[in-house]
Each structure stands twice: as structure tokens, then as C-alpha cells.
Amino acid sequence: MLRYAAIDIGSNAVRLLIADISKQDGKYKYKKNTLIRVPLRLGDDAFLDQYISEKKSADLVKTMTAFKNLMDVYHVSEYLACATSAMREARNGEDIVKLIKKETDVTLEIIEGQREANIIYANHIEEELDENKNYLYIDVGGGSTELSVFVKGTPEASRSFNIGTIRMLDNQDKEETWEEMKDWVKEHTKTYKHLAGIGTGGNINKLFRMSDEKENAPLSLQKLNSMYNKLTSYSLKERINTLGLNPDRADVIIPACEIYLTLMKWTGIKQIYVPKVGMADGIIKLLIEEKLD
Question: What's the domain count of the chain?
């Protein structure tokens, strides 16, 4: 059994995905074997101080040690570990990469926004959807939002913006970045009628589960809006105790909603598809493309 692993060091959580690779009808497929998510919140340090504290660095090293041990136990033959927005902005990001290599022998790559967008799109979600439609692909993370415009199955333009859920909670999102995103998205979607959305990231996956929509059905703007109104009518404590949200989900879900809703309103998108994949899945797909295809 061939096993690959993806490590995604985000601004909110750090994930390890171990996947079993198999070949069917001449094509390589993967099945999720194990997924572990640790809510480290590196973004709080990175966006406020541009520096990751010793405590968070130590927690990250412990997490990477655990991930390395699990990869060994599962006999993982290839892995790729990527760090995104928080590590990009931390002045000591490169030092932490060296520390992790020294302590755990895990090679970590701090990736640029454009590479992050490319990895997310390695999921090739558009292949599952109607190729006669045009889509805006929205991936919302803790530190950045990756956007891509797909026209008849082909990516026409993509860009990463420093707008994310942790950044918004810490009031580190800038007015001009929102304006830049608005201009970019309007410029790249203005010629397309009946644009649909594709949403990825932990928050939209959770929203989709809460919506009770049927598998593969899209979420409507109306539904998302009413869910947002419901969520904001509860206090943080109530979102945790009454709605049963994890503490590290209960706060970020609100700004995530705001990002999706804002982008849908700017572009006239009425429906958003939620394929339940993210950065870690993209890394596995990328490894398959690079190593096997």
C-alpha cells in the first residue's frame, strides 16, 4: 500500500492528512486514511506581532514531532509540508523552519500566496462540475483568501489576498486590501453571467454541514445569509454551548461567513458549491501528479 502525507500549517490550525494511494482504471486515486487537526492559532502571533512566540514555536515543534512519528508508523513514503500566511508574515518564520528540521527532520516549505492558490486548485474541483458554467473559486483561511476564476473548466485568473478569519478577528485586515479584492474580482468576473461559487476551507465545510443541504447540492446566498444572521444572534459562549461548535471554530466562522457573503454579493453569485476539500487534499493531489502521473 502506497501512502502519502500532507502537512498544512495554517494560521488557525495545523493539519496532517495521511492518504492511501491506489490505481483504478489507469488513474491514481487517494482515500483519506487519517486526518488530524490541531488548533494552534499561529496567526494571532504573526498578524499582531509579526513574530511567533516561543510558546507557539514549541507547540508547533511538538505537533511536528507527533506528525513525524505518525508518518513513520503509517509507513508514509512521500510527504509535503507547507506553511501559509502566518509563517509568511512572521519575521522568525525561517528560523522556525530550521528548528523543525533540526528537531524533527521534517522539511517545511513556507509557500507564497500564488503557490498556495495553485495547490488548492490541484484538487481540480471544476472537473466534477458543469463545464459550461463559470465559477469563482473561494478558499478562505485564517490569514488569506485565495480566489480563482474558472471559465468552462479552465482557470483564467487567480490571486491571493491578505484577508482571513484570524486576521479579521485581530483587526489586522486593511480597508485597502478589501478594495483591492473588490476591484480584482469585479474586473475578472464582469463579463460572465450566471457565475456560481465554489467554496473551500474548514468554515464553509462546517456551514455546509450545519445547513442540512443534500450532498452535492449548492448552498444558496439566501441560506448562507440566514445562517450568518442566526450565528451572529448568538454570543460566542452560546455558539459553543448551544450550537455545539468547537471553541476554535465558533469565533472564526463569523468572519468566514462575511468573506463568502461579500464576494457573492460583489459578483452576483446566488449559489456556492462546497466540495469538502482543502489545502491538504491539494497537496496529496500534487504529490500524485509529481511522483506518479
Answer: 2
Alpha carbons 52 and 215: distance in angstroms, whole number? 39
Q: Are residues 150 and 268 in the same domain?
A: yes
In angstroms, rounded to a whole number, what is the distance separating the alpha carbons of residues 186 and 62? 43
Mean pLDDT of 141-162: 92
Cell of 254: 463569523
Range of the domain at 250: 125-276
3-class DSSP state of 158: strand
Residue 187 · residue 242 · CB < 8 Å: no
Same domain, yes or no: 102 and 164: no
* Residue 229 domain-assigned (yes or no): yes
Ramachandran quadrant class, 220 (left: phi over 0; alpha: psi -120 to 50; beta: rest): beta
User: How would DSSP label each residue in 114-159?
Assistant: HHHHHHHHTT-GGGGS-TTSEEEEEEE-SS-EEEEEEETTEEEEEE
Question: What values do phi and psi take at 269, rounded to 5?
Answer: -75, 130
**Same-domain pairing of 202 and 285:** no
pLDDT tens sequence across 207-257: 999 999 998 899 999 999 999 999 999 999 999 999 999 999 999 999 999
**Helix 113-121 vs helix 279-291: crossing angle, to nearest 10:** 80
